[in-house]
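FORM 12-B: Structure-to-Sequence Request
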């Protein structure tokens, strides 16, 4: 089944479908996924056992750091293998043995988290009766907070946790909707389920309620990996029963991850027993809910207004010279005043995002593209785009509108704009952009940049390149960049930092380099940071008041044009109540 097919049947089958949310649904709100937390637990245990500074393992996305941690725990021999379902719970229990410590850890992790667009969209479906029963293994209160915003209060929302498990079955039998069932409790609950023993002894009443619900409704699984045996075993037991999941079983997984074997077996088993069971690839939880909400087309105007509502927090005011009474805080966001609103759409028989990138690389084409539910979205010359995707049997070749509603979350369109801007700024000057999971990193060829602008940057930063002392690791001053859509407009976020290549470094040299970067950036206080930002802005703008760039500079096809203003946003104290 394709996403398109699912979206077409959802309005008809929605009352017969319940939801099961996992950590992936909270990732868009800034809460780490289970995979991210495993690395944090490993880091804490490793540094304590080896008596080394946590700074030596700061970059947990580094292949070298991950290899170092895995090598150590493999040698210890008492932990589950990497990637197994038991890994998360085992490391969490080892890192935080006391239940109170685990509760404090989760409290700090979740404090201040706000619902993402996906949570608000799901709450909107709850409000109109198209999502009546939500199961969640998450500890956060994001779905409850989103529901309160959409419902304008707690009236009519039933929330059952491990502190009152009987409420789940009571609400289920009485059909009191919407019902949010917290299978592992929440971070304020007295009962938390997060370690192997706790997960194995999942509360019997909650488990029975889930089992009973699978005989009445279908299930949508979003953002849940299936790691803990307690929930997955309940779903496995449900599949064994006759007439399970009458509304179907739809398991969504992110394209940048791989489903666990146990999940694949569950779907295959369900399908063999006559259940309409499907595994569907999706980019993000927000994108799934955004597409689903858009497909319905019958959301009441007052709910739509709540989804689109943003406080009027942007205004043009004159800026005064900085001083002791300076009433504002400088932000690292440059306004993007123009960006592409149309791109090329190609419908063809190609796989996911990885396949699209490999096809472009193989063809050595001047094309930027992203895989979405609508098809392959691309910028570039039409002949170039056809050359890349013709081997995959193109059935449709037209235009696609990039709507701002799809830039509010991590969508394919937003990713396409980020990749296009990276290419455009490389065309604007002596720049090169490296991609990473933490954002793009802009490297400048200082030998080719205007001398007076390089001198200004050097005056603020000191040396711009060099070799880390006592190592052979080169370093350079760089600018981390990222496009983001907030407050009804697109922004270019910039962050001056120091970069070093670590792919071939040994652990000792890498630790030295990490400490070098920390010491170099730690002394950059407000005044120095402000002057450094100004120097970088002047360099990328080449002294102009605005930066006008294009990804290809072509006359045929569709190009991506951007205009970025040279004045950052500022915040000031509100004068209204």
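FORM 12-B RESPONSE
SEQUENCE OUT:
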């Amino acid at each position: 089944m394709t996403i398109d097919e699912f979206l077409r049947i959802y309005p008809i089958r929605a009352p017969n479908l319940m939801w099961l949310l996992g950590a992936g649904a909270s990732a868009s709100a800034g809460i780490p996924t289970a995979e991210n937390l495993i690395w944090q637990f490993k880091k804490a245990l490793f540094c304590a056992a080896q008596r080394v500074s946590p700074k030596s393992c700061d970059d947990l996305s580094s292949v070298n750091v991950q290899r170092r941690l895995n090598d150590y725990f493999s040698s210890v021999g008492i932990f589950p293998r990497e990637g197994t379902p038991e890994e998360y719970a085992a490391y969490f229990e080892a890192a935080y043995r006391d239940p109170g410590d685990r509760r404090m850890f989760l409290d700090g992790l979740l404090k201040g988290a706000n619902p993402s667009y996906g949570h608000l969209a799901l709450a909107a479906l709850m409000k109109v009766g198209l999502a009546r029963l939500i199961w969640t293994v998450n500890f956060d209160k994001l779905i409850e907070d989103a529901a309160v915003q959409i419902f304008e209060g707690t009236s009519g929302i039933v929330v059952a946790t491990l502190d009152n498990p009987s409420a789940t079955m009571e609400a289920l039998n009485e059909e009191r909707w919407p019902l949010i069932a917290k299978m592992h409790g929440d971070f304020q609950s007295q009962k938390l389920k997060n370690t192997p023993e706790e997960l194995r002894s999942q509360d019997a009443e909650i488990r029975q309620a889930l089992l009973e619900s699978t005989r009445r409704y279908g299930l949508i699984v979003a953002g849940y990996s299936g790691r803990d045996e307690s929930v997955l075993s309940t779903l496995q037991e449900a599949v064994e029963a006759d007439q399970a999941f009458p509304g179907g079983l739809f398991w969504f997984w992110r394209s940048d991850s791989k489903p666990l074997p146990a999940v694949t077996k569950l779907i295959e088993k369900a399908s063999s027993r006559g259940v309409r069971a499907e595994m569907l690839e999706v980019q993000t939880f927000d994108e799934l809910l955004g597409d689903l909400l858009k497909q319905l087309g019958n959301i009441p105007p007052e709910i739509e207004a709540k989804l689109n509502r943003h406080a009027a927090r942007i205004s043009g005011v004159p800026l005064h010279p900085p001083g002791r009474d300076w009433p504002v805080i400088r932000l690292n966001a440059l306004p993007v005043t123009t960006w592409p609103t149309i791109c090329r759409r190609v419908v063809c028989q190609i796989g996911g995002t990885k396949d699209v990138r490999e096809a472009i690389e193989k063809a050595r084409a001047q094309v930027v593209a992203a895989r979405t539910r609508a098809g392959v979205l691309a910028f570039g010359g039409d002949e170039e785009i056809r050359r890349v995707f013709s081997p995959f049997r193109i059935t449709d070749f037209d235009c696609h509108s990039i709507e701002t509603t799809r830039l509010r979350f991590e969508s394919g369109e937003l990713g396409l704009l980020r990749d296009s801007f990276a290419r455009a700024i490389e065309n604007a000057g002596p720049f090169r952009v490296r991609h990473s999971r933490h954002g793009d990193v802009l490297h400048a060829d200082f030998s080719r940049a205007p001398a007076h602008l390089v001198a200004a940057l050097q005056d603020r930063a000191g040396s711009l390149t060099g070799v880390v002392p006592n190592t052979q690791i080169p370093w350079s001053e760089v600018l981390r960049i990222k496009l983001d859509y907030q407050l009804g407009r697109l922004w270019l976020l910039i962050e001056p930092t120091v970069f070093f290549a670590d792919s071939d470094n040994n652990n000792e040299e890498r630790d030295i380099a990490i400490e070098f970067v920390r010491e170099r950036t730690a002394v950059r206080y407000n005044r120095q940071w402000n002057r450094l930002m100004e120097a970088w802005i002047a360099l990328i703008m080449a002294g102009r008041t605005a930066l006008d760039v294009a990804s290809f500079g072509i006359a045929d096809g569709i190009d991506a044009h951007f205009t970025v203003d040279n004045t950052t946003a500022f915040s000031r104290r509100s004068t209204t109540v």
